[in-house]
Amino acid sequence: MKNAIQRSAPVTLGIASFVIILVIWELLVRVGWANPFFTSQPSAIASALARQIRTGELLRNFLVSFREFVMGFSAAVVVGLVLGVVAGWYRVIEYILDPFIWFLYSAPLIAFYPIFVIRLGLGSGTVIAISFLLSVTPIAVNTLTGMKNINPSLILAARSFGARPHDLLWKVALPASVPMIVAGLRLGVGRALTGVIIAELFVASSGLGYSISYNGQLLRTTNMFASLIVIVALGVACTQSLSALEARFDSWRTSPGV
Amino acid sequence: MARIAAFESRPRFFESRAFVSTTAVLLFLIFWEIAPRLHWIDGTFTSEPSRVIAATLEILRGGDLLRDVSISLLEFTLGMIFAILIGVPIGLLLGTFQTLRYLLDPPVMALYATPQLALLPIFVVWLGIGVGSKMAVVFVGGVIPIIVNSIAGVREVDRSLVLAARSFCASQKDVFAKVIFPGSLPAVMIGIRLGISRGVLGVIVAEMYVSQSGIGNEIMKYGSAFRVDYLLVYVILVSVFGFTATTAVRALEERLRA
Known about the structure:
The complex is a heterodimer. Chain A is an all-alpha fold. Chain A has 11 helices and no strands.
């Protein structure tokens, strides 16, 4: 009995914590200690969400942002993996790419959005480009690091048994780099979402980031929180699905380390 | 060929990282300088290194740089100091006390998976267009990774060390101050490093979104005027700052681990 309680404790307390936050928030407004004009309240946000679902506004904004995220992130995965593998395989290419990757990594790329707008227009094209640029660097850097840190004895063993270069790549180097690559994808997901949201603050005419910004200019805090909750849900869903992916691709690994 | 460090021949100078990276950057700069002159690309949107240097001198000669830098730096530093002062103790507490962790982990992880810059328009409504909203963005961007990594740091501390200290009659306070805290410092530093890079992006995006001064404000001004040369000076300044700050923290991190 005690064990069952202990095992369910994380879930119970986790749900409890969201309930407590919502109740306190609602009470603070009802009692009059918080001004609903600024803080809104859970009941109002819930009805705003329900209204936005009915009118289709929520689905439309969500689909716009989600599409931008998927396109930016998947382009970043393809390009980042290829760059990382090539740079991990050929040392000269690593040295050539290194300074540019570090500049991309540390530069506030959103600064260049006016230039993107000229090429790609005010809207999804620019948002996708910024999301791509923000998320491609961690994926490339982590893939490269994963390839460089392979246990040399694995490569030697494979070679001794006559592995050809492409066997080494597909059967040793890539599988051994999976943990680093997934860590890169995790960072990349976060940065791709950030890219979508901040780009939408500046250039979009629909999407979740745009909705927050637009409602902010009208001081509609309830609508802002409604969009924010959808963004939080999207972020959590992406992170969770990556964890599932990680468990699946890494299931062959029997002992930690190697 | 896959690399095996131990089996590589002595690196020759023209294969060294310093030589290859410097050559790549120099070739890129030369291409960037001559391509617009030969009409291979449209220089309006790419500028040229010579014009960036001229713009740097121009900005240094004007008097606004010091004011912009000090405002952005103030917003960044205050936000980060609060993030460290609040994030580290919360993280250590959550790492130490299981029930507290079960209770607060879900909201913290939800915020960790969310692009924190989505909160920017809400902070502007709450705190106005001045220093306050930028500090808040830097604070939220910094405090979440600091909490998450501090929790991980406490949990990474070797249990046998804690048990050993207890066997020698160390008090709860001593165990915390002399075993858990020092043991979790490397992970805390990782959190601070992640927080710094999110904070730098946060301050710039927040200033670009709405402000009256600061580096982000200049970026916005020159960006909308398509003065790419001036824009690049500020972007490079921010990159160098972010790169230096994270490299410094990384060095500290390695010293703590050693």
